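dude i think i finally got it to work??
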Amino acid sequence: MEFLIATWVCCGVSCAIIAEKKYRDQTLWFFLGILFGVFALVAIALLPSA
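look at this
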């Protein structure tokens, strides 16, 4: 169970970091990363910079 929580948090933090570099809302992407995990991470990685 701890592994899943750690994975979700890592996805959220990674999404927020990538969102910051692409000039997107970090808070939104942090929570999207928490909710959708790897799917949100792939989505933000593929989005162009704002």
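The first helix runs from residue 2 to 21.
im so relieved honestly
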